[in-house]
Amino acid sequence: MLVSRRAPKPTRAGTSLHRHHCVGADGYRQHVAKVGAKARSQHRCSECQHVSAKWVGRCPDCGSWGTVDEIAVLTPLSGSGSMAARTVAPSSPAVPISSIDPGSTRHFHTGVSELDRVLGGGLVPGSVTLLAGDPGVGKSTLLLEVVHRWAQSGRRALYLSGEESAGQIRLRAERTGCTHDEVFLAAESDLQTALGHIEQVKPTLIVVDSVQTMSTAEVDGVTGGVTQVRAVTTALTMAAKSTGVAIILVGHVTKDGAIAGPRSLEHLVDVVLHFEGDRNSALRMVRGVKNRFGAADEVGCFLLHDNGIEGVADPSGLFLDQRPQPVSGTSVTVTLDGKRPLIGEVQALIGSASAGNPRRAVSGIDSARAAMITAVLEKRAHLNVGQNDIYLSTVGGMRLTDPSSDLAVALAIASAYADIPMPTTVVAIGEVGLAGDLRRVTGMDRRLAEAARLGFDCAVVPPGVKDVPTGLTVMSADNISGALRVLKSIAGK
Question: Does the keyword Transport apply (predicted)?
């Protein structure tokens, strides 16, 4: 029995395939290239890159407000296969890297040596620098000193303030002695008007205090919000690159110490600096976090006074307690803050525990590392210090986060427990392990050179140190027990 079968209806895929065979491969590719791609909209969070189909005020992934923006996504048409990319003729041809003049990125000194140290030699024309710090730490005072020194060298500077009036800045300038005719002031928070000031004054250095107070009418959002901060920073960066003027932006920080605003703010600028300091101390430190024109791990030290701010070229003396006779419970170490060696002093005090509950009070030292060193002294060196109150502190408000200060902390505790003072000309450098062993740390040659320069004549270090400066005696110890024996032999001389 014969059964008549109808030919199946061609599907869309079959039709497309049939068309492909009829027209030919080359003709089909030309057809797809002519049709192109269709665009569809997506909404992406600028903080966590979460993509959603519609706009929302708050990102459902990271919970940030006002960070979801609309983006256009090009998708190839169905069945198009591989679509040829369209090329655009470059406006300027690519050149060999050896033919580029390096003088275009030459540093110009600001006149503040400690800031130039962190910047890698000074400000580069067309660069954008972000200086962030806590309120009242001295950012405006430092930058007013910078524009004053800049103007003294025959260059023009423009100070744009969105937080203070011109009269307030003038009063600070008189108090700190930073008045100069080539320093122009403008209390302005509108971006377009600020760009007009730049075009009219034609400075070579611009200070914007601060970027969170600037706003533009071309984008939505509140002043200081994510959208406004990104738009203002982008516009100022384009102005710096097109005119060749150096711009310093002042940035706010959150309660956690991070730079306020979107994370992309740090990617837009060329240099990121953190201005740190304690309100109870006059010491201020500018720390480099990002630098496209130099090292990103330099530190500059300043002293903030009522009549201004000054750089400290040799800050090691600020962290030492000057006393005529040695006292038990003190030890000196050399730490590296970035690439800069700094002398620091650790002080320890041992007391009797009240009500059988030992107390630990730590200032300037990591409490977790202090507890670990105490446990190592009790277990490996057999010092019964765990049942006593232990107080640890640094001199001058210094923070010792480098593991190289472990040995100095251990020797300070042991000196306080045995009531044996260490000589004031001895430094201790090394990391203490849980097994009681001493480990070498990086930059030992720079640490020892700084100790020798400041007049120290003996250093207690882990074994393996070869490069020893002239006039410095190195005494090695394999573990914490050996370091205590070295301490006892030195103290007995």
Answer: no
Task: Write down the pTM of the prediction.
Answer: 0.75
φ/ψ of 310, rounded to 5, equals -135, 145
pLDDT of residue 256: 80
Q: Where are the domains of the chain?
A: 19-75, 108-313, 317-491
- Region of residue 489 (left: phi > 0; alpha: psi -120 to 50; beta: else): alpha
Report the distance separating Cα 134 and Cα 131, nearest Å: 10
Sign of CA dihedral 367, 373, 379, 381: negative
What is the percent of the chain where pLDDT is above 90?
60
Q: What is the pLDDT of residues 243-274, one digit of tens each?
A: 999 999 999 998 888 888 888 899 999 999 99
What pLDDT does residue 72 have?
66
**Span 450-484, pLDDT tens digits:** 999 999 999 999 999 988 999 999 999 999 999 99
Q: Which amino acid is at 171?
A: L
CATH number assigned to the domain covering 317-491: 3.30.230.10
Binding-site annotation, residues? 133-140
Binding site, annotated residues for ATP: 133-140
Query: Does residue 8 surpass a pLDDT of 90?
Result: no
| 108-313 topology per CATH | Rossmann fold (3.40.50)
